[in-house]
Amino acid sequence: MIRWLDNETNVKGRANENFARELFELFTLGRDQGYVEADVKEAARAFTGWTIRKDAFWFDHSKHDGGLKRVLGHEGRLDGEAVLDLAVAHEACARHVAAKLLACFVGPAAPPEAVAELAAVFRAADGDVARCLEVLLGSELFFDPAQRGTRIRGPVEWILWVLRTLGLRASPRALHRAAARMGQALLEPPDVAGWDEEEAWISSATWIHRQNFAARLASAEGRPELRPGLEDVVPGDDDGYAYLGPTLFPDGLGQGSARAVARLGEAGRGLPREQRLAGLCETLWMLPEAHRF
Amino acid sequence: MRSLLLALALLGPGAPAQAPAPASGPSARDLSPLAPADSLAVAELRSPAFALRSLQALARRLEADDGPLADLVPERVRRRLELGLAWSDRWPELAVGRMLDRVAHEGLLVGLRPGDGGPRPFAILQLAEDAHAEEAASVLRSWTLAVRVCGGRTCVLARTETELDGLAEAVAAAAGPARFAGASGDAGGDLVALRLWIGPAVLARTRDLPKLREDPGAAWFLCGLPEALRGSAGVVVEAGVDAGRGLRLRARFAGFAKALPAEARSVWTGGEALWPAEVPGTVLRFRVARDLAALVEHRRSLLDDAGQPPLDRFLQGLEFGFQGARAEDELLADLRPSTTGLLALGAAEDRVEERGLSYRLPRGLLSYGHGGSLLAAQLPQALRVLVVAGNAGRQRKGQAPYRIEDAGDEALAMATARVQSGLEPRPFGEVLRPTVGSTGKRLYVASSPGLVRAVVAEGETVALPAEARCTPLDRLEVDGTALAEGLEQNRDLVATRFVLDRGDSYAEARKLVDRLAALGRLLPGLAVWTGFDGDDLVLGLELETAPRLWDLDVLAGLLAEAGPRRPASRPRRTQGSSDEPAPRAGDELLRPFEPRPDRPWDRAAAAHLARRAALHTHPALLDRLLAAGSPQAGVAALLAGEASRRRAGRLQAALALVLAGSDMRDLQAWCWMQLLLDRHPLQARMALFWHDHFATGPTRSRSAAPGWPGSGRCSGASGWARSGRSSARSRGARR
């Protein structure tokens, strides 16, 4: 992060505000929540001297601005650690983290009232995220049927669902390449704000890469690293739907999807099981229900 | 992109009304794209609503038909069609807005490829369109309107010489002969096709091409190629056929590393071969490098400069832009697809200095660009300005964006002066692509093909039309009446302008602009444009002609879709604010879930928990959650994870190996191993969560190790994946 946000160039007398700004805006408080421009400038001074040496964090005293600073209403000879403490202790931080957890686990339609509730849990637990998850995931809100299927799977989430639900294996490098084409290369976020999510995952361009991935994974097409061994993981000797349907979609399928699957079954009659299985998996993975969760 | 192929019966101008009588059942002849032309024309409209109905109609037809049609449609095409319908059933907003075109194109291109014996999409959709042939015919009955359809970057194929002449005349009358020199009067053969790109990209004219006669599907395929490649391969290909010189493809590259498939080069360079039948797939890539130089060289040898109309040279210039690289490798190394750049040149410029590279540009080249977003505006007298938007993300990270003030000021100043003086003619009411871009502190706005709306420096206000009013889109009014109602009541709205405020980020604004642009393409006479007014982003919506022939419900729906709603995409959107509602006592949303008859703790509920918190629904996981006995116990089981020291040890060992090397790809692959094999799926979930929250990347790292999980002061594999439990106060690891 120090490199990514230019803190190597943040030195006494020539403060670089990148890290301090993102610390408040993205990592802790949220945009325009509880801080002003002056806080950013002063906080940047506190992070002077934070740098990298020999591929590890290094605090360079000689470049640190040890003067008086005023950040988030507190004054003193604040250093970086102190500013981090102030930011995390700020009430906006709890709200910010709570809102992101809600968006992740409950979805984009999470009611705003829940933010304050979860923020209270976060504060009471002194920032223990596991405790927040315990409360959130076991709550009435989380299990509200209206919240089901409201999120859109990102590339990594979708690929993990495809593989782990059926216990399939694939080459990690191939998966990385596939996810990158779909718009999410791990360790390579588009910028410090992370990835655009939900609807932004689905475009005509990324969708075709999902389609290609499903087709390749289902057929293996001479790519041993993607060979899934579908015949091994799907029991029975039918076309596999009796197992795959309830396993992939415990909530069932919509009318249009069910129709597509039914017709596929008819069209596949007489084909070898391997082919039917591949065709079915490709279709199931590309149904709309497979991309929401 | 939204698109639709709509085939319909159309009466030529002055021709007797003669509908193509559908046969009792489809025959192979019906499925030939060049079945004897009963004055048929094909229009391609960009309307998702039409597309949806077309697909539905086609699917119904296929379902009901066990005969030749069903036999001729490949299974793969059928599967795509059905998937498209399943999406539209379940998820209409995405299916129509983002998916359908791809579904359609995939199916169509597969069906179209010469040599596979499959049916032609032309004919498929012709059959599919019976359902609303009348509606479509009403649109195209007037040539003038047909031209407007063209103006929205729409393809019109005329299938007889008479039609071509009629269409060309209509176009020339509307646009002026210079703009379409050669389009009229050159239809020498009995088979003609005209592809018109109105505005800066006059594409190509097709006439009397022997190859086309042999396999007319190829022409259609080429016409579909741009759409097929758009966005996927970083290249916009414009394709057409030319009687004198064979097939033509033109490519405009958004990124240097992606271009036409190698197999397509024979089309480009040879001018002989059509698209080979063995091309596997529709989205293909190869490195540009010297292949491109060879293509350009060949292209140049084919072109007679003196004989080219100015607009042709404009496109030609785009190609020649690649010639300017002094050292090809240097160019490739320097110009990443993600970099942004811009040149805006007057006609006399022939050399450009940029980032230490000198580019030689042919005289007459007006612009070129690479990477970023291509923003173009065009003015008469061959003054054109091409702008590539500064990449906000890059700028934010402190990387120097390209600056073009020096190169482009004069041109832009002239453009602005023309706009502000009201001299700028508007040959068409249509908008091609409303665009906005910025370089440094200067913002450029362009909308219709002949217009640069404004050039705005930071702190200035945008030059809005005097009659502009600022109104949020959802409260747009026309003479006191809400827009949707107004359209309903008054179908003859003319020259009405709207402006809307929207204080929002650039990225969000661009999304909105794109949606509005799609809307603009649907509606002749609707222009959409953008600008800044102080800190507020301003979007303009401009209706100049009445959408009277269009489905107003569709319009209202699209407006609603394009309106200023907050797409639920960024988690930040739900973040709390100081005035958020306080939790009410006794009605806590986060109170423990208590199963009851109408909301049992069953497999579906466990699956929901597993999907969100573990990202998969393996039967064993669901069994484990249900065996826990209650939702809360299931959550506790997820939080505890499953211990597998052996597996953790192997992952740890793998990580040590990865970090000993210096290849970031190894680390990325290791992340995938961890995600796939970890027995603690909630950890994996949280690792992704925090990766998005503390988003950072290796761009400036020298190796895989520094600052990355498990390296230096971090605590290794488990430390990375365990971040979910480590709370936001994890910065101690930095020390």
Structure description:
With 293 residues, chain A is mainly alpha-helical. Helix content of chain A is 51%, strand content 5%. Chain A is built from 14 helices and four strands. In chain A, β1 and β2 form a beta hairpin. In chain A, α4 crosses α5 (113-124), α4 (91-105) packs across α6 (129-137) and α10 packs antiparallel against α14. In chain B, the strands form nine sheets. A three-stranded antiparallel β-sheet of chain B has the order 1-2-3. In chain B, strands 14-15-16 form a three-stranded antiparallel β-sheet. In chain B, a hairpin with a 2-residue loop joins β20 (526-533) and β21. The longest helix of chain B has 21 residues, at 92-112. Chain B is globular. Chain B starts with a strand and ends in a 14-residue tail after the last helix. Chains A and B meet through α1, β2, α3, α4 and α5 of A and α3, α4, α20, α22 and α24 of B.
Name some characteristics of this structure.
heterodimer, A: 293 residues, mainly alpha, 14 helices, 4 strands, 51% helix, elongated, B: 735 residues, alpha+beta, 26 helices, disordered N terminus
Rg of chain B computed from alpha carbons, rounded to a whole number of angstroms: 29 Å
Fraction of residues of chain B in helices?
25-40%
- Number of contiguous helices of chain A: 14
Q: Helical region count of chain B?
A: 26
Main structural class of chain B: alpha+beta
Mean pLDDT of chain B: 43
Short précis:
The complex is a heterodimer of chains A (293) and B (735). Chain A is mainly alpha-helical and 293 residues long.
Topology:
The complex is a heterodimer of chains A (293) and B (735).
Chain A: H1 18-28, H2 37-46, E1 50-53, E2 56-59, E3 69-71, E4 74-76, H3 80-89, H4 91-105, H5 113-124, H6 129-137, H7 140-143, H8 155-166, H9 172-181, H10 204-219, H11 230-233, H12 241-248, H13 255-267, H14 273-286
Antiparallel strand pairs in A: 1-2, 3-4
Chain B: E1 5-9, E2 40-44, H1 48-64, H2 68-72, H3 75-90, H4 92-112, H5 121-128, H6 133-140, H7 143-151, E3 156-158, H8 161-175, E4 192-195, E5 204-207, H9 210-214, H10 216-229, E6 235-242, E7 246-253, H11 265-270, H12 289-302, H13 310-320, H14 328-334, E8 343-344, E9 351-354, E10 357-360, E11 367-368, E12 374-378, E13 384-388, H15 392-396, H16 405-421, E14 435-439, E15 442-446, E16 452-457, E17 477-478, E18 481-482, H17 483-489, E19 496-502, H18 506-522, E20 526-533, E21 536-543, H19 552-562, H20 603-614, H21 619-627, H22 631-640, H23 645-660, H24 664-677, H25 681-693, H26 716-721
Antiparallel strand pairs in B: 1-2, 2-3, 4-5, 6-7, 8-11, 9-10, 12-13, 14-15, 15-16, 17-18, 19-21, 20-21
Helix pairs in contact in B: 1-3, 1-4, 1-5, 3-4, 4-10, 7-8, 17-19, 18-19, 20-21, 20-22, 21-22, 23-24
